[in-house]
Amino acid sequence: MSSKLWGSDPSKTAVIRQITDAITTVSVPFLRVGLLKFGGRATIAKLSSGGLVVFSPTVLTEEVASTVTSLGGQVSYIVAPDIEHHLNIGPWKAAYPSARVIGPTVLYQKRQKQGNEDVPFDFSYSSENKNSIVLPEDFTRDFELEYWDGHMSHEIALLHKPSGTLIEADLIFNLPAHEQFSKTDVDANKGFWTKISMHLFTSLAGKSQQRFLWYGASKGKASFNKSAKILDGWEFDRIIPCHGDVIENGGKATFRRLFAWHLAAAEAEAKKST
């Protein structure tokens, strides 16, 4: 199964890149349902305390493990950001047993039903507790976290405050996935289904992704709108998505364009309640 998702030899196709002094990405080829060239990405951020936060971990190859070692080797947190991004948390937790795991409660329940490795979630987010969980100071010093319980995939998004970087899984796609397929013989732009997905999930122009967010991704509109409003209050210019190329600058304007309807709805709701 993993070869269909990430290719037969992830060590040869992963692109490891330092984005900032504190952030390193691991970009890999990834085919959704074996057809759509989405690409995948893990983001490794170094905390001010020296520990590492690993967001949406990809396959733990020797090269990736060596990168972790070069960054200090102390994985403090593993973030499984939604119900789709979790297949590698077992191997990472086994390799770094002291790491604390952050994820949505529905994901833990899904993994139990599927018979995945039993990886306990130290911080398990639900609609009921999302505003009451207190994360450790070493994490909150560098990160803001928002759990999108109104999103179809139950997203957890992070803001790396020191660099103004939004790190997210399936909130925003930025296809085509050039970097993620750059070390393969696969053209990230070609293929009928790939062109369809590129039309839906480009962040550069048009309203296709905006419509998808409004009509497809937002299952609990009121909560989704509130989460969009919270992120709109964050200071960021860069967006690191799991699928597609990194948005190196202009990320806030891109976010506001894609979530414009949700932000307007949140503003209207706020006016009604005053």
From TrEMBL:
It comes from Orbilia javanica. The lineage of its organism: Eukaryota, Fungi, Dikarya, Ascomycota, Pezizomycotina. This is Uncharacterized protein. InterPro entries: DUF4336, RibonucZ/Hydroxyglut_hydro.
